[in-house]
Write a structure and sequence with these properties.
mainly beta; five-stranded mixed β-sheet
Amino acid sequence: MRTGEFKWKFNVIPRPGEVGHETWEDDAWSYTGDVSSWAPLSADPELGLVYIPTNAATIDFYGGFQPGDNLFSASLIALDVETGERRWHFQMVHHDVWNNDTPTAPLLMDVNVAGRKVPGVFQATKQAFLYSFNRETGEPIWPIVERPVPQSAVPGEQLSPTQPFPTKPAPYDIQELSVDGLIDFTPELRQEALDIVADYKLGGLFNPPMQKDNPEGLIGSAWCPGELGGTNITGPPAADPQTGIIYTISRTNCGWRTIVPGEERDLLLERPTGVTIAEFAVGMGTPNGVRGPRGLPLEKPPYSRITAIDLNTGDHLWWIPNGGTPRFIQNHPALQGLDIPPTGNINHSALMITPTMLLHTAIGDDGETPYLFSVNKATGERMGSVESPGLGMYGMMSYMHDGRQRIVLQTPGQLAAFSLPTKEN
C-alpha cells in the first residue's frame, strides 16, 4: 500500500502444476469462474497469515460441466502475507451445487481446549456448521469427518461421494427438512403443509437439486439450510475473546430449487450468447423457498435464532429466538386464539459484543418495530431495548466519546448512532 508495487498472486482456481489443479477434471479450470471471496478477509499479523473464505464456483445448483471437487471453492485458505504461499486450506463443501458460499469473515480467537491454549480460527457457514481450526497449522480443533451423502440423478452431474461434517460444535440451526419439521399450529395447517411437500423430495444438508421432468415425477427437492439459511452475509457472528464464546445468528430456511435444460433457461435471456457451457441451469424456485399454507412459513419456528457456543469446549450454552413474532403471523386469521410461542424474525441481523452484554437488532414483540436489544451474554436473558430506525445489517461498531460509549448501527440507507447511559444517569 506504500508503493503500489505488485507483490503476489494466488490462483483460487489452480493452474496446471499447482496444488488442487487435479480437482478440476476435463480442463474445467480453463472456463469456470466465480471462485472469489465475497466475505471480508481476516489476518493474523503475528503469524503473517491472511485467511480467505471463498464462495462456490459458477454456476449455482448445477456442476456437471466442472467435474471434480473444485478447489479452492467453498474453502478457507491461509496464505503467507509476504509471499502468497498457501500454508493450509480446508474445503468445507466439495463440488458445491447448493450455493453454499462462505458468507462471513473468519473469526480469530485464542481458546483453551482440554487445558491447552489454541490459536483458533472459526468459520461460520450457511450450513449452520461452525468450522474450528488451529489458525497456525490448519488442524481441526475437533475431528471433522467425511460422511457419505446422497448422489445426483441429474444427467452429467457428478457429486462428491462424501462431505466434511464437524463433530463439534453441533449445528446451530436445522439441517434437514422432514414431515416432523413442518408447521403444526393446527391440524388443518399441518395437512396443508403435507399436501404442499408431497411433490418434493425432502432431505438434509446435501440433498441434491433435481431436474424438471425427473423420473420420480416430482417438482424438485428441498435441502436445509438453503442459500438464505444458517449464517449469511448480512448477519455475521460475533466473538468474545474474554470468554472464548462465539454468538451466531442464523435463519431457518430451506432450499427449493429445480434445474431446467439450458435451452429452456436461455428463453429468459434477451440475447443468449449461443455458446453451450452447461446442459442445465437453475430455472424454478426462489431463495425464500416454497410458500407454506395460507402464506405462513412451511417450517416450524423459530425462524431465526441466536446461539451461544463455547469454543473452549465446543458446546452450545444457550439459544434464543431472534426477536419477536412477525405481525403477519400474530394477526393471521388461522392462528387467532392460539398460544403461539415466540417465533423470531424471518431474517438475519447484526450482533456485537461488549464487556458486559450482547447487542443485536430485531423486530420487537409487536411484530413490526425494529429495536436494538441488549442481552445477558452468559444466559441469553433480555436486559433492555431501544427503538431503532431500522434493522441492523452486517455489523456494528462501538467507540468512546466524551466519556460515553457510542454504538453505530448499519441500517438500510442510513447509519444509526446510540449513546449508552453513564453511571450517573
